[in-house]
């Protein structure tokens, strides 16, 4: 049993880096996915799905805030985490930053499904976290996430049933699957402006996250579980899943053996991102910069 | 007019194709939460400054419904020691857009209570809020407002 890491003031350098890295991958995934979801508001194929996606985006923003709140204990304020942060310091998976092709609802639905299954698994692995504030949030977030997965799966079933929908899903799957695999890549510790150049390696920080009991499952184990859920389900919709590490053709057992060839060039978790991310970052920080803000919640003076 | 409109009182017939089964809305499952011991906290047994803090909290309403945040079940605990009031509070859901508004109001009102010099407001998320945390009085308030609970 790992000791409880409850007082941020008592954390040593290794513990602090592990906690910060874990929280950034959690919070950044949620925040960036929400930014993308909001693009669908008023553009989804029905008023019902406009509302559903808008609501899911609101949930994800809420979850991002819950994780960023824990980072506040480590001295990070909202402006450091979002509006004034170096875009290369973000640690989200490239799955959540990819732009949507205009009108490609199948992409939004498939992306949501891939993400929501992964999120449910990783929340399960945080339930007994040695950091009480992390564990405290899991139940709440999980209860809200259940609906997201239900929504995605519901749409997947219907889209896969029609010829055009099926085709679009297959396209989206071919395009997104390598990015989905980055959900399980280890995170490089944040470098930021104060980087000394001898930061620990991503795999070592990831090992610390598990050793310290912050999360009780390795990324490989999570990846394997994810494959064993996602692959059979997508195949049941007659979709062809790209190389996925199935042990042999007749089983639904998987080994998470991701090779360099299976991954996209930019992986997000290591701070490398696709160009789309830098455009998105410019967009959501635009108003903050345009108004010359230096704080996120302070009420502005009423103009004379 | 087609002359084929159904007689008054006839059953509506929106599903014209009998082969197509009506699909129920997937989101009618309003799960009821479990009852949690000691919650909702209502400050019944509080005395002194703590009782005054509870009174202040009772005076704060949810921004969307005419119900006190205490009766809504958002307050998980109050203690006052050495002039510091510690309030454990939750929100109905994580993406609550009124979070800052509510926490600011709690800090202001509790901070104004005689004997309280400082407020330590802790947002907690476990156990997660459910409808079961609404007090009986809260349920009456919500019913009067027109919600079925």
UniProtKB/TrEMBL annotation, chain A:
Enzyme class per UniProt: oxidoreductase
Database matches in Pfam families: PaaA_PaaC (PF05138)
E.C. no: 1.14.13.149
Keyword annotations: Oxidoreductase
Molecular function in Gene Ontology: phenylacetyl-CoA 1,2-epoxidase activity
PANTHER family assigned: 1,2-PHENYLACETYL-COA EPOXIDASE, SUBUNIT C (PTHR30458:SF0), PHENYLACETIC ACID DEGRADATION PROTEIN PAA (PTHR30458)
Record protein name field: 1,2-phenylacetyl-CoA epoxidase subunit PaaC
Organism: Halosolutus amylolyticus
Automatic annotation (TrEMBL), chain B:
Recorded superkingdom: Archaea
Class of this enzyme: oxidoreductase
An annotated Gene Ontology molecular function: phenylacetyl-CoA 1,2-epoxidase activity
Domain MIP18 family-like residues, every copy: 50-120
EC numbers, comma separated: 1.14.13.149
Keyword vocabulary terms for this entry: Oxidoreductase
UniProt-annotated stretches for the region Disordered: 1-32
Cited Gene3D superfamilies: Fe-S cluster assembly (FSCA)
Protein name in UniProt: 1,2-phenylacetyl-CoA epoxidase subunit PaaD
Taxonomic source organism: Halosolutus amylolyticus
Species classification: Archaea, Methanobacteriati, Methanobacteriota, Stenosarchaea group, Halobacteria
Record gene name: paaD
């Amino acid at each position: 049993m790992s000791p409880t890491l409850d007082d941020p003031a008592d954390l040593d350098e290794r513990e602090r880096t592990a906690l910060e890295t874990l929280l950034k991958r959690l919070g950044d995934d949620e925040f960036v996915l929400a930014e993308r979801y909001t693009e669908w508001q008023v553009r989804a194929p029905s008023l019902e799905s406009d509302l559903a996606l808008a609501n899911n985006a609101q949930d994800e923003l809420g979850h991002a805030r819950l994780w960023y709140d824990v980072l506040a204990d480590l001295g990070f304020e909202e402006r450091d985490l979002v509006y004034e942060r170096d875009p290369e310091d973000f640690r989200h998976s490239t799955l959540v930053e990819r732009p949507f092709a205009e009108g490609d609802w199948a992409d939004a639905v498939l992306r949501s499904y891939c993400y929501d299954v992964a999120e449910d698994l990783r929340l399960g692995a945080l339930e007994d976290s040695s950091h009480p504030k992390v564990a405290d949030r899991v139940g709440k977030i999980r209860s809200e996430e259940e609906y997201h997965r239900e929504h995605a799966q519901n749409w997947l079933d219907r889209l896969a049933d029609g010829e055009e929908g099926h085709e679009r899903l297959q396209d989206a799957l071919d395009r997104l699957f390598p990015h989905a695999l980055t959900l399980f890549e280890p995170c490089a510790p944040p470098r930021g402006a104060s980087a000394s150049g001898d930061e620990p390696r991503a795999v070592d920080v990831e090992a610390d996250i598990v050793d310290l009991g912050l999360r009780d499952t390795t990324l490989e184990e999570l990846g394997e579980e994810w494959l064993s859920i996602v692959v059979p389900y997508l195949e049941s919709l007659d979709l062809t899943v790209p190389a996925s590490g199935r042990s042999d053709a007749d089983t639904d057992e998987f080994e998470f053996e991701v090779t360099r060839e299976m991954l996209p060039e930019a992986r997000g978790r290591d701070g490398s991102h696709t160009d789309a991310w830098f455009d998105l970052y410019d967009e959501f920080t635009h108003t903050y910069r345009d108004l010359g803000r230096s704080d996120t919640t302070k009420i502005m003076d009423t103009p004379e | 007019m087609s002359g084929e409109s159904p007689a008054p009182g006839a059953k509506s017939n929106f599903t014209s194709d009998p082969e197509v089964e009506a699909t129920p809305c997937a989101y009618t499952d309003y799960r009821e939460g479990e009852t949690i011991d000691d919650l909702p906290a209502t400050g019944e047994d509080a005395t002194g400054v703590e009782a005054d803090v509870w009174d202040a909290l009772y005076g704060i309403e949810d921004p969307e419904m005419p119900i006190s945040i205490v009766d809504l079940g958002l307050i998980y605990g109050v203690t006052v020691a050495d002039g510091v009031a510690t309030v454990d509070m939750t929100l109905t859901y994580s993406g609550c857009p009124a979070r800052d508004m509510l926490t600011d109001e709690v800090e202001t009102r509790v901070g104004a209570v005689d004997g309280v010099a400082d407020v330590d407001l802790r947002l907690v998320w476990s156990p997660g809020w459910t409808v079961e945390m609404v007090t009986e009085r809260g349920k009456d308030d919500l019913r009067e407002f027109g919600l079925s609970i």
